[in-house]
Amino acid sequence: MSAAHPNRSLVFASRPGGAAEVRLCCFPHAGGRPAPFMRGAAHLPKHVELVGVCLPGHGHRVAERPLETVAAMAESAATAVEPLLDRPLALLGHSLGALVAFEVARELRRRRGIEPVALFAAAASAPGALSGEEPMSHLGGDALWTAVKARYGGMDDAVDNDPELRALLLPALRADMMAMESYRCVPQPPLKCGILALAGNVDAEVSVAGLGGWGAYTTGPFDMRLFPGGHFFLHERTPAVLRAVVRWLAEKADSQPGSLSPNAGAPSRRR
Fold this sequence. Notes:
globular, 34% helix, 9 helices
C-alpha cells in the first residue's frame, strides 16, 4: 500500500506506527514507475521507510512531458528528495534509475554538502562504462517497445495486448532511452558514502567488470552481489534483494544522519 504526497515526485509506502529511522529512496528503470518498489515495503523492517521517485511522464504523472537527460532527471529528483534529509537517506536505483540515483547523490552534495548514507546500484554498469549497444531511442512506435523488450526482457505482457496503453507509455520509454544513450559521467571526486552494486547472474547487459567499476566512485565501503535472474532480477527477487540492502545498511552504511557533511570525519575505510 502506498500513500500520496503533496510533492508529486514522491510516493511513500504506508508504514503504521512511529517515525522510521532511515528512508530508502527508490528510482525505477527506464519506462518504469515506483509501484513495484512499493510492493516491497512488506519485506522491510519497521525502521526503514520506502519512498519511490516518480518523474514526469511516468506512473501517475503520465500526462506530463518526460525528461530526456539523466542530468535533468537528477536535478528534478534531487529537488524532490531534499525535504527528506531530516533523516538518514539511502538511494536505490534500478538500471537507468541507478545512474539517476548516483547523480542525485552528487547533486545533493553540490547543493547542500550532504550525501546519502548509502547508494545501491542495481542492474547497471558503472557510470564511466560506455555501452556498446546500438541506440534505439530513434525507433518509431511499436518498434521501440519490441527492441527494448528483446534486449532487456521484463516488459509487461499485458501492454503487448493493449495498443492504446502502449501508445500512452512509449513517450516516457523513448525519453528514458534517450537519457541512457546520451549519458556521460562528468568527472568529480568520488562519493564518501558506500556503494553496493547488485546484478542478476544472467543479465547480458551488465558484466561483472562493469558492475565492479562502481568501486571507483566511492572512498567508502564497496561490495558486489549477484542474484539469480536477468536484468529484472530486482523485481523477481524482491524479498532477497531488500534483505541484502537492509543487512548492508546495518553493517556498512555510514552511521551518521543523511545530513552528514562530506567534510565531517575521515572517510570510511574500504572493506
